Amino acid sequence: MIRVAAVGDLHVGPDIRGHYRERLTGIADRADLLLVAGDLTRHGTIAEGHIAAEELRGIGVPVITVLGNHDYHSDVELEIAQVLSAAGVTVLEGTGTVVQCNGTRVGVAGGKGFGGGFAGRSASDFGEPEMKAFVGYTKTFAARLRASLMSLDADVRICLTHYSPVKDTLAGEPPEIYPFLGSYLLAEAIDQSDVDLAVHGHAHKGTEKGVTPGGVRVRNVALPVIQQAYAVYGLVREEAGEPAAERR
Ligand SMILES: [Fe+2]
Ligand SMILES: [Fe+2]
Description:
Layout lengths: L1 E6 L11 H5 L3 H4 L2 E5 L8 H11 L6 E4 L10 H10 L3 E2 L3 E7 L2 E8 L17 H22 L5 E6 L22 H8 L5 E4 L8 E3 L5 E4 L2 H4 L4 E6 L8 E3 L1
Helix pairs in contact: 3-4, 5-6
Bound molecules: fe (ii) ion (2 copies).
């Protein structure tokens, strides 16, 4: 059994320096890896990136993260990713990684993702160049996500994004802003890629549990949603070729 710890939307600032790290004490006894679903910072500054890096450095389990929209706000997302990498945190953006956990190869692929909305209520790449750019960004990301998920040489596959692949986990947010919280294109990529678990953040007022149209479990791990330092999901590969089961 693989124990996947996950959290999103840390939104660190100088006032909480060291506080989140304290809450991670003993995580190695409870989980095999930690996934961070973006929005590590408040305003995406390099200073906040350093604070996030120090919260996550050397906690005793591999840490894999994606950035969120807040981490892009000051146009230094690449520098923030470098700061996190230097602290030993793996940062994904349309890419994947495989970690060994108790003899099981756990593959994680992901990236920030983007919005656009959900089937029947989604934006389309029609008309103005700005609309084409908006939807085109998500389409391009979804294609990269699918490719990186499919190329994982792993026993268990996890999709990690900031934006949501489904609307189930947005329940609690105003429906008017769903198109800014996720896109069905991410769920399509997940459903085409033999994924066992999809994790996201961003929807602070959303709901923890959902499922893609193809039956993949989706978990919104934004801190205000899970209301604990991290949630832990158990993944079990029962038999070769059988879907992994999940236990809380
Ligand atoms: Fe957030
Ligand atoms: Fe966000």
